[in-house]
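Thread: Newbie trying to understand structure tokens

Hi all, I'm a second-year student working on a class project, and my supervisor (Dr. K.) asked me to get a predicted structure for one chain before our next meeting. I've only ever worked with sequences, so writing a 3D structure as a token string is new to me. If someone could post the tokens and maybe explain what I'm looking at, I'd be very grateful. Here's the chain:
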Amino acid sequence: MLADYNNKVLDVSAKAHQMKVDSDALRATLNSLSNTTNEAAQDGNSVTITHTQQTSIGRTEIIMGNTDQAKTGKLTRSQTGERDWTPYYIGGGLLALVLIAALLGGGCLTSALMGPNRVI
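---
Reply by user tm_fold:
Sure, no problem. This is what the structure looks like when written as tokens:
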């Protein structure tokens, strides 16, 4: 029972350490991105910087800059990591269309070949 308790304490300690490491890395990333954004803006450039990451502290989505996109504060679907399913939907629709056409056309073709008295 004492060994189980010690293992749980070690697990909590390891998790806390990992979260601290991830938090420090996020802080360094934010500092670097904000410095880069600030330098580009001061030079008169338009800049939008985006960054997403998944760590032990959760998912972090960052957008910085002086452009209209940055001002909205919204990442695009591809920037958030969402998969675009549109090509799959189009492909599935085309496949269904071909199958339906083959079934309908095949029925007419078969009756035309067989005729009223023909047996194949």
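A couple of things are worth pointing out once you decode it. The longest strand covers residues 48-55. The CA atoms of residues 111 and 118 lie 9 Å apart. Feel free to ask follow-ups in this thread.
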